[in-house]
Specification:
P-loop_NTPase; 247 residues; binds magnesium ion; binds guanosine-5'-diphosphate; 16% strand
Length: 247
């Protein structure tokens, strides 16, 4: 059974639906301490910034160690080699030595459009969402959407996932990554309006905030229409990507 306080935490996450939402660190710690290992499925297209977030959360720049579904170590080079060929296994557990409390699964594969990979991901979500043993369950899904490609923020892959994948009670949180790319967009926009480069750089943070807000609204507009919309959205700005916030 899921402890009731954990359920109420999920409910509060669901209710918040707010990009600025941050759990009080003390409360987060209390909840996380209830679970021996926090298991998270990380999704998002290649280069969305998935590995970077996991490293940030685990306070490391190391690559994760990889174990297969029965706890045998998988040679990292093999996985990287096979990753290129598209044989990455969602069941593999990614663990960082620096923080053994987290176990990550990387969905890498279905975003490229393969129906078989999508079905595998969906089965993984359904199986692990229902798992009766808390230890085997996935506790959250983090769906990374990068903001550096403004023309393709929400692609067919995101639409398919949020239309077809019912994660049950497992919260899906959209992480908006690479928000810093919008700073450059803001500078460009100001220079197009006739600002000098220096003035544009000075004024950029304000415009950057508006661009962030605009991206968030657009993404919410697209995803909240779908059958299984995310529970919440989190903009990973510089502030949130720094070490203290990552804790
Ligand atoms: N500008 C910027 N680059 C990022 C950010 N996060 C990741 N990157 C870069 O994007 C590339 C892909 O990141 P990675 O975490 O490997 O993506 P993954 O393929 O989803 O695991 C790397 O070169 C990262 O350094 C970010 O927040 N801002
Ligand atoms: Mg990666």
């Amino acid at each position: 059974m899921v402890p009731s306080s954990l359920r109420s935490w999920w409910r509060s996450l669901r209710r918040s639906g707010n990009a600025d939402y941050r759990l009080d660190p003390a409360e987060a710690k209390k909840q996380i301490d209830r679970i021996p290992r926090f298991r998270i499925l990380v999704m998002g297209r290649a280069n969305a910034g998935k590995t970077t977030i996991l490293q940030r959360v685990c306070n490391t720049t190391d690559q994760p160690e990889i174990f297969d579904g029965i706890g045998e170590r998988v040679d990292a080079r093999m996985v990287q080699g096979s990753l290129k060929r598209g044989y990455h296994n969602i069941e593999d557990e990614l663990v960082f030595k620096s923080n053994l409390r987290y176990v990550f699964h990387d969905s890498c594969g279905f975003e490229a459009g393969s129906e078989a990979e999508f079905d595998k991901m969906k089965k993984f979500v359904t199986d692990h969402a229902k798992a009766t043993k808390l230890e085997r369950r996935i506790h959250a899904i983090w769906y990374c959407i990068p903001l550096n490609e403004s023309h393709r923020m929400v692609t067919a892959a995101e639409k398919k996932f949020f239309n077809e994948c019912d994660s049950g009670h497992v919260p899906v949180i959209v992480l908006l990554t690479k928000a810093d790319a919008l700073n450059l967009d803001a500078v460009d926009e100001l220079m197009e309006r006739g600002y000098t480069e220096d003035d544009a750089i000075k004024e950029a943070p304000e415009v950057e905030k508006q661009l962030q807000k605009g991206c968030l609204e657009k993404i919410k507009g697209w995803l909240n229409e779908l059958k299984f919309p995310p529970q919440s959205y989190l903009m990973l700005t510089g502030k949130l990507m720094n070490k203290k916030a990552a804790d």
